[in-house]
Amino acid sequence: MDNLFRRKRIGLLKPLLSLSLVFVSFLMIHKLKLAEKDGVRQKHAGETYWCDTECLASKKGVGKNHPGSESSVLGGEPDAQRPPTGNRSSWDAQVLNCSEDASVRSRDWFQRLDQRFHQFVLYRHCRYFPMLLNHPEKCADGEVHLLMVIKSIIEQHDRREAVRKTWGKERTVDGRKITTLFLLGSPASGKDAKNLQKLIEYEDRIYGDILQWDFMDTFFNLTLKEVNFLKWFDLYCPGVRFIFKGDDDVFVNTHNLLELIDFKVEARKEADMLVGDTIFKAIPIRNRQSKYYIPRELYDKPYPPYVGGGGFLMSAHLARRLYVASEDVELYPIDDVFLGMCLEALKLAPEMHPGFRTFGITKQKVSPMNNEPCFYKQLILVHKLGAEELLRMWSVVHQEDLVCAKKTSVHDPQLAKSSH
Ligand SMILES: *[C@@H]1O[C@H](CO)[C@@H](O)[C@H](O)[C@H]1NC(C)=O
Ligand SMILES: *[C@@H]1O[C@H](CO)[C@@H](O)[C@H](O)[C@H]1NC(C)=O
Ligand SMILES: *[C@@H]1O[C@H](CO)[C@@H](O)[C@H](O)[C@H]1NC(C)=O
């Protein structure tokens, strides 16, 4: 009898629970909609229902310490994310409406210029954009040995997921802290922008590792990711020592990367270090079919030495110098080349390291070498791998019983033989 009664009560509880769940989700959606109507998109719902009492308290504290400081209608970081003791200035790029530079339309080179570049040239002067998602706290407290920043677009959710589980996993290795951030723009028009934006905000609430700026995430806008990141880094990351910057479709051997850093530090060659797959004496591609096609009207010289954007390592010291130098360099539609131009302005050249394979292990896609874990074990970076390939290769390379004939050190003179 007693038993039966209990069962009945449980039977009642279940529908009650699911009913309240439905109610809560309804409230969440409603709040999201309200926030959007108010035009406070970047102050995403985190403020309204993600913030617990502790975070609300610290938020109030911050408010008091910064009287009248940017209520950040658009562009500033949500106050909740700023450490209460911090006294740093905040992201100041508030201009939402950077209008086209109509004066270039009348130039005759503009009229000759390939249509594809019109948009780029008209908006070339728009450099810094408001932030939709920011994490000023990310490298604020204490020293970060290595900051991993990864260019991604909203749709590549599975690649970010794979990176978080593999080489981009935040952790401390022998006292050296590794922190990871993804760099994103806003959805390009014509896509389901509103829903994509909601998805990325949701993902960021879970992981807290997305930096997003309010410019369209297009190929020619990748350079905006470069300059906005450099400015962001200069502002928020005083305690970072090294930066790895790369794509979301690469394999990185984090262990070898850390070893390379150690080697550079020991050799006292770390201050102005920028290492990667360096391309010397390249010339602009004039084949109109190519993704990298550059018309003569836009650029008519050989390129300075630059590193393939698939991934490279640089010191924080150099990143800060690059930020200053970049402000005097006109934006260029190919981000890797743009960075090379900034280095050139500093009278520096990137260093070649054969451990960075931004064009893959061999150029032949079907080559069995591309599936050979021992190669991945001795390299630093390999381009390019999809999310599933990355997860698979990562677990194979990290198997205890993987036996490779020879573990080549990253500073083995033979492997590190420079090509210049
Ligand atoms: C914040 O920094 C500014 C400039 O560095 C300084 O003048 C000011 O006193 C600081 N404020 C606080 C509350 O520490
Ligand atoms: C943006 O700026 C242009 C030129 O200054 C102006 O004509 C336009 O109305 C502005 N748009 C918005 C949405 O403010
Ligand atoms: C870059 O983004 C800005 C801001 O969203 C946009 O106005 C511009 O057209 C984009 N440029 C290219 C070349 O896609």
| Amount of helix | 25-40%
**Oligomeric assembly:** single chain
CATH fold-level topology of one domain: Spore Coat Polysaccharide Biosynthesis Protein SpsA, Chain A
- C-alpha geometry: globular
CATH class value of one domain: Alpha Beta
Average pLDDT for all residues: 80
Q: What distance separates the N and C termini?
A: 88 Å
Largest sheet: 9 strands, mixed
Which kinds of small molecule does this entry bind, naming each only once? 2-acetamido-2-deoxy-beta-D-glucopyranose
Order of SSEs, N→C? HHHHHEEHEEHEHEEHEEHHEEHEH
Structural class: alpha/beta
In total, the number of strands is 12
List segments where confidence is low: pLDDT < 50 over at least 5 consecutive residues: 1-8, 21-29, 31-87, 412-420
Computed Rg: 24 Å
Q: What proportion strand?
A: 15-25%
What's the CATH architecture of one domain? Alpha-Beta Complex
Q: In DSSP terms, counting alpha (H) and pi (I) runs of 4 or more, how many helices?
A: 13
Organism: Takifugu flavidus (sansaifugu)
Subcellular location: Golgi apparatus membrane
Membrane topology: Single-pass type II membrane protein
EC number: 2.4.1.-
What are the main properties of this structure?
Spore Coat Polysaccharide Biosynthesis Protein SpsA, Chain A; EC 2.4.1.-; 9-stranded mixed beta sheet; globular; golgi apparatus; 420 residues; glycoprotein; hexosyltransferase activity; Hexosyltransferase; 12 strands; alpha/beta; 16% strand; binds 2-acetamido-2-deoxy-beta-D-glucopyranose; 13 helices; disordered C terminus; disordered N terminus
